[in-house]
Amino acid sequence: MSTPSTILPTEEIDYPDSDGQPMAENTLQFRWITTIQGGLDALFRDNPDVFVAGDLFWYPVQGSNTIRTAPDALVAFGRPKGYRGSYMQWREGNIAPQVVWEILSPGNRAGELDDKFEFYRRYGVEEYYQYDPDRDRLRGWRREGDQLREILPIEGWISPRLGIRLEMEAGELVIYRPDGERFQTYLEMEQDKREERCGRLAAEARTEQEQQRANEERQRAEQERQRANEERQRANEERLQREAAQQRAEQEQQRAEQERQQRQTAQTQAEQERQRAEQLAAKLRALGIDPEA
After folding, report:
1. What is the side-by-side order of every strand in the sheet holding 127-132?
2. Fewer CB within 10 Å: C terminus or N terminus of the chain?
3. For residue 168, what is the enclosing H or E element?
4. Which of 129, 113, 143 is nearest to 75 (CA)?
């Protein structure tokens, strides 16, 4: 996109939200634009004062609708999230996006890239990153005074503003968040979500199985407790029966002993009666009396 410097004199100016050009020239460029913009948006999703956008017109000068460019991704610290048709800097507290990204395609021209670099230098960008996925080339610049100085070496560089780390691994850019997680494509995120969902479902299934086993264990334990109670009850009844039988046996034994003692007493009394009778008969015979007469 060109960046002419003409300022229109009228205040009734239309600031278009689009120039009718496609966001990307090919699928590779589009994948990297969405990956970086989406990764940055996710990185600052909990910070209400960081605005992240992709392919959004940035108008730095009020009164001119031709001084503009649309970075593939931009980050503006100190600006609230929310919908914007374009980034009109004078409506944003005059805060310029501090970080911009450009993803190159085979159609990019050297003059166009020079114009963008000059635009970012002139209008206050603090960090400018440029990635060419076709050539696996990463470059970056950081503001020093009124200039953007190239970051050398760029590999392993940690962005002061974003906190992200840039690496080239297997000939491809890898962006690491401050927490060590890397930026992912939409498909990678979907795969992670699917795996997470499968893992969650598996965990839920395991939990349900464990709960079912626990319920079965509780039921078995309850059945064992009931059987133990029944066994104790039967054992108690048998003990009571044995005690009752023993008591009856003792009573029978006592009655038998009493009957024996009664028979013995009767025999003793009979013997005593016999002896008295013999003594009486002897005394009568001694007197000349026949005891049987």
Report:
1. 50-53, 73-77, 99-103, 127-132, 137-144, 147-150
2. C
3. strand 165-169
4. 129
Q: CA 181, 187, 190: angle at the middle one, nearest 5?
A: 75
Residue type at position 181: E
Give the torsion sign (CA, 186, 159, 137, 86): positive
Contact 42, 77 (CB under 8 A): no
Contacts of residue 105, Cβ cutoff 8 Å, sequence gap at least 6: 24, 25, 26, 28, 29, 134
136 dihedral zone (left: phi>0; alpha: psi -120 to 50; beta): left
The total number of residues written for the chain in this structure: 293
Note whether 72 and 54 are within 8 A (CB). Answer: yes
252 close to 246: Cβ distance less than 8 angstroms:
no
Predicted model pTM: 0.64
The answer to whether 132 touches 145, Cβ cutoff 8 Å, is no
Quote the pLDDT of residue 199: 67
CA 177 – CA 159 distance, rounded (Å): 10
How far is the C-alpha of 38 from the C-alpha of 35, rounded, in Å?
Answer: 5
Asked whether 164 and 174 are in contact (CB, 8 A), the reply is no
Residue 285: its pLDDT value, please?
86
Low-confidence residues in the chain, pLDDT < 50: 1-10
Tens digits of residue pLDDT in 149-194: 999 999 999 999 999 999 999 989 999 999 999 999 877 766 655 6
| Residue 125 near residue 100 (C-beta atoms within 8 A) | yes
